[in-house]
Specification:
Elements lengths: L1 H22 L3 E6 L2 E6 H27 L4 H26 L2 H14 L4 H13 L3 H12 L5 H14 L3 H14 L4 H13 L3 H11 L8 H20 L3 H14 L4 H10 L4 H13 L3 H8 L7 H15 L4 H13 L3 H14 L3 H14 L3 H11 L6 E5 L5 E2 L15 E5 L7 H11 L4
Antiparallel strand pairs: 1-2, 3-4, 3-5
Bound molecules: zinc ion.
């Protein structure tokens, strides 16, 4: 409708112009070179209109020829694009199939036809990886990281490469850049955490953990445990630097993050001043996780304590908190034995040998027979029994199996973070010879 009105208006204006020109027939004179052309204004206007119409039809026709499907230029470009896309999909299939040669051939072909496409770079990088050409892969990932549309993907490749090379510093640089680009990406945060922990940068690791633990996952047991481990390591560092207040507050935070984590509980107990608050922490920690390391921390609170006093204090702490726990009975048996309360020690040990026998339990029974009853034969029997007994728990790495006398944030053997668990490990049978040697050594001929 609007088009019709426009057309009508244009025709009306043209008609009016024609009438006006017919009423005012001027003369146009053009002098050019040796020629003089004289004509009327009506003729000139008509000629100009015809030329303009002709040119516009010519241009439209040209444009139609260029862009219609199957035209000369369009056909050429789309044929190249089709070949490029074929090469890309062949390349992706080759990569999935692990065919390194075909992947490289396809990458070269794709590069020829689709030079500036992001997918071409990705295919080239992956083909280089498959051909174990690390240098070429790095060059392609670098190029991807330089383009806004493939920066993140390129960084991911560079991170994998740097990690495979064992270059912690470079991995960290790429990870930080990826984190700036897409803050909060889960795999980036995990990667950052891993590198920072390897570098023992616990302060930055804690900041990353705070970001990871936001929202629902903040209450997850795994996150809370990690907070405790990292907090404990920071507290230990503060203690080494003589920062008493920082040690206490960090140990408190670590203990409240995971009250069952023994190293943090032991450090907190040692860092607190005596008083009811500390007594409460101690009894609570013993109730949640009775452990030999916690016992040592509690025992060391009183310097030069007599054996009788320690026995009384240990009973007052441990019996109300975890009366039936194996570690309570072992700790009290040892305390009673040292206080020469042999009857009481035997009571705990008899119970343990029935319900929770272990190497330590049988060896303590042997000691008891030897010291309390001077019965070397009975002692020898307990020692022999101990060679078949289940082993006492120890800190053992879940990654490499190495055993350690104390807890370590990183396994001393394989450097895996937080890999040690407190558990009983059965040694291989070759150790039988060593156990026989212990028997001979502990029971000297009389
Ligand atoms: Zn290990």
């Amino acid at each position: 409708m609007i088009r019709a009105i426009y057309l009508f208006l244009i025709i009306a204006i043209l008609a009016l112009a024609g009438v006006w020109l017919a009423d005012n027939p001027g003369v146009v004179s053009v002098r050019w070179g040796g020629y003089v052309i004289e004509t009327s204004m009506v003729f000139l206007a008509g000629a100009a209109l015809i030329v303009a119409l002709f040119l516009s039809i010519l241009f439209s026709t040209y444009r139609w020829m260029r862009t219609r499907p199957g035209s000369w230029g369009g056909a050429f470009a789309s044929r190249r694009r089709g070949r490029g896309l074929d090469a890309l999909s062949n390349g992706m299939v080759a990569i999935a199939a692990g065919d390194a040669d075909e992947a490289r051939r396809a990458a070269i072909e794709a590069e020829k036809y689709l030079k500036d496409e992001p997918m071409t770079l990705l295919l080239a990088a992956q083909a280089a990886e498959l051909n174990q050409d690390d240098r070429a892969a790095k060059i392609y990932y670098d190029r991807m990281a330089d383009r806004a549309d493939t920066e993140f993907l390129g960084l991911r490749g560079l991170i994998e490469r740097a990690r495979a090379d064992g270059d912690l510093a470079q991995t960290l640089i790429h990870l930080r850049r990826a984190d700036d680009l897409k803050p909060g990406t889960e795999w980036v945060l995990k990667g950052l955490m891993e590198i920072l922990l390897k570098q023992r940068n616990y302060e930055d690791a804690e900041a990353v953990l705070d970001r990871m633990g936001r929202g629902k996952s903040a209450k997850q047991e795994g996150v809370r445990h990690l907070q405790a481990v990292i907090g404990y390591e920071r507290a230990r560092l503060a203690k080494r630097e003589g920062k008493t207040e920082a040690t206490l507050s960090l140990a408190e935070a670590a203990h409240s993050a995971d009250p069952k984590f023994v190293p943090a509980a032991a450090l907190l107990v040692q860092s607190m001043g005596s008083g009811r608050k500390r007594d409460k922490v101690i009894s609570n920690a013993w109730r949640l996780n009775p452990h030999p390391e916690l016992k040592v921390a509690i025992k060391d609170l009183v310097l030069a304590e007599g054996a009788q006093e320690w026995l009384a204090r240990a009973k007052a702490i441990m019996l109300p908190s975890a009366p039936d726990h194996r570690e309570t009975k072992i700790a009290l048996a040892r305390a009673a034995f040292d206080a020469r309360q042999f009857g009481e020690a035997r009571k705990y040990l008899d119970d343990l040998s029935k319900n929770n026998p272990s190497v330590t339990v049988y060896r303590m029974l042997a000691e008891l027979e030897e010291i309390a009853n001077a019965d070397a034969a009975a002692a020898r029997n307990w020692i022999i029994k101990s060679t078949e007994a289940p082993h006492d728990p120890i800190w053992a790495c879940n990654s490499c199996g190495a055993q350690a006398s104390g807890w370590n944030a990183h396994c001393p053997t394989c450097d895996t973070f937080d890999s040690q668990s407190w558990r009983s490990v059965t040694p291989p049978r070759e150790e039988d010879g060593i156990l026989e040697a212990i028997v001979v050594e502990e029971i000297p001929a009389q």
